[in-house]
Amino acid sequence: MTKTSKLKSSIELKEHQKDALDFILENNGRALLAHDTGTGKTLSSIAGFEELKKQKKAKKALVLMPASLLTNFRDNGIKKFTNSTYGDVGENKDYSLMSMEMFRRDPESVMTDNEFDTLIVDEIHRAKDPQSVTNKSMRYASENVDNVIGVTGSFISNHPRDIVPLLDIVSPEHSFGSQSTFGKKHTKREVRSSGFLKPNVSKVKLKNESVLADKIKGKIHYVTHSDMGGGMPALEEENVYVPMSKKQSKAYSFALGRLDPVTRRKIRNGLPVNQKEASHIFSIITQARQASNSIEPFYSDVDLTEGAKETPKVSKMLDDLEEYLGKTPDGQVAIHTNFVRGGADVLDAGLKDRGINHGIFAGHGSLGATKENRDEAVKRFNSGKDKVILLTPAGGEGVNLPDTTMFMTMDRHYNPERNNQAIARGRRLGGQSNRKEEDRKLIVKNYYSEPKSRNGLLEFIAGKEVGIDEWVNGISEEKNRLNRDMRNVVSSSA
User: Fold this and answer.
1) Residue 394 and residue 176: Cα distance in Å, rounded?
2) pLDDT (0 to 100) of residue 416
3) Count of domains forming the chain
4) Of the four listed, 96, 136, 149, 435, which is most buried by Cβ atoms within 10 Å?
């Protein structure tokens, strides 16, 4: 199946996209397309709907997604790939686009006043909370259409049971039951003692994998980067460890030392903490992560430019950036941080101080970001006018930076899927097309600050001596292990 209804004649589907079309048809128009980020899943979903139209199984689609992705789906999806009509809800077009945020306000009116037969949900993992208004509104929409195509690069985020609320939308006849039932039947928790007066360490593992695979069969079309064959730039990853300065270590120790004696004793003895104590612990850890990134928030006599110069991690990142761009004429570098304060702000100041032109993709209002200058930042980067773009979590989804050759991570996220989504902004199917195929490679550098002295709080939480950057990465890696196990089960069900 190389051509479908109203896809432009210039569009050639990849093998995994043709397989996705067949999967959608075989499963009566309902499928969860769990395609790794950067593999062309937007085209897969659009081609699926076009094929359903061609076979007279669909006429009108309601397309839901986060508000920040509407323009991208329209311009770099429907408009780019098809000759179909598109517009807002109520305009009687082939595709009616609406944000999830707007739809969940009044899903009944949207579905009653229009004759949609197909629901397409981009980034459907945003509806993973079964009690959320977003999930409930999408389940309502699913009940009122024939076809549902859910699209995500992160079908699991924190736990394998995350899959259940997504299937409630796409394939409500699934046999998993509730998330709780899924957890009881298909996961187990192994607890290991870390020794006297230290908290126990627990790990979640899958069980009854063969039964799980049978239940998933026919529900999820799963595609990984390794399934691409060609077309994806290779991935080269490196961890860079940077010792803290004496001044930074002082700020770091101050941040971690704010815990009251009662809560500290609870943590040391593995006792549960209440919600107020847990919130305070999270606040402390967040501040310690900022101290790991920059000294500026902790010293009133240090401005952002001085913070960039005096914080070893920032200085090392900017040194590496300048060295790389000096040696790589076609180099394009994306820098990602999960923080604006103690993250993007100090990087922005450091880049300006060194005279490095760059764009910023941050949340509206952060560092002066608007929709217009965010779009302009992406445009300038993709055209090569700017060699550097600075990204916050606002740029974690829907931003397409296909010619990125280096991706620098200032601080990793607890959730491995958030890290994968960020990196995937620069690792795209067909990316680096200006290079020879053997030269297409994305270099990923993860930066970790190493404290000069350890702090008892963090060691008792982690069960070993570790810095805050390493601790967060350890949580991410443990979740990633479980996610990989679940992905292996899904892959075996194909």
Assistant:
1) 33
2) 86
3) 2
4) 149
pLDDT, mean of each 10-residue run, the chain (494 residues): 66 92 95 91 96 95 93 93 95 95 96 95 95 97 97 87 95 94 90 47 82 92 81 92 94 82 68 73 87 95 97 98 97 97 96 97 88 92 96 80 96 89 90 92 96 60 64 82 87 80
Neighbours of 191 (CB within 10 A): 8
Residue 349 and residue 429 in one domain: yes
The predicted pLDDT at position 85 comes to 95
**Structure confidence at residue 455 (pLDDT):** 54
Instruction: Based on the fold, state whether residues 289 and 345 are members of the same structural domain.
Output: yes
Handedness of CA 98, 102, 107, 113 (dihedral sign): negative
391 shares a domain with 258: yes
Position 285 scores a pLDDT of 85
Q: What is the C-alpha separation between 399 and 122, in angstroms, rounded?
A: 14
* In 176-300, alpha helices (H): 179-186, 209-216, 246-256, 261-268, 275-293
Q: What does 399-439 look like in DSSP terms, one character per residue?
A: ---TT--EEEESS--SSHHHHHHHHTTT--TT--TTS-GGG
Do 240 and 300 share a structural domain?
yes
Count of CA atoms in the C-beta half-sphere (13 A) of 381: 29
Q: Are residues 296 and 160 in the same domain?
A: no
Burial of 30 per CB tally in 10 Å (0-12, 13-18, 19+): buried
Q: Is there a contact between 2 and 8 (Cβ–Cβ < 8 Å)?
A: no
Q: Maximum distance among all alpha carbons in the chain?
A: 69
- Would you report the helix, strand and coil content of the chain in percent, each value rounded to 5? 50, 15, 35
pTM: 0.80
Residue with tokens 């126990």: 200
The reply to whether 4 falls in a domain is no
Specify whether the CB–CB gap between 152 and 123 falls below 8 A.
Answer: yes
| Cα–Cα distance for residue pair 63/95, rounded to 1 Å | 7
Q: Are strands 333-336 and 388-391 parallel, antiparallel or unpaired?
A: parallel
Q: What is the phi/psi pair of residue 292, to 5°?
A: -70, -20
Do residues 424 and 275 share a domain? yes
In a domain, 77, yes or no: yes
DSSP 82: B
321: tokens are 């950036």
Q: Decide: 38 and 423 in contact? Cβ < 8 Å.
A: no
CB-count burial class (<10 Å; 0-12, 13-18, 19+) for 378: buried
Tokens coding 121: 């949900």
Which are the contacts of 77, defined by CB distance < 8 A and separation ≥ 6?
42, 43, 46
Q: What is the pLDDT of residue 361?
A: 94
Show the domain range for 330.
234-484
Q: Give me 459's structure tokens.
A: 């060691």
Strands of 70-117 (E only): list them: 86-88, 95-99
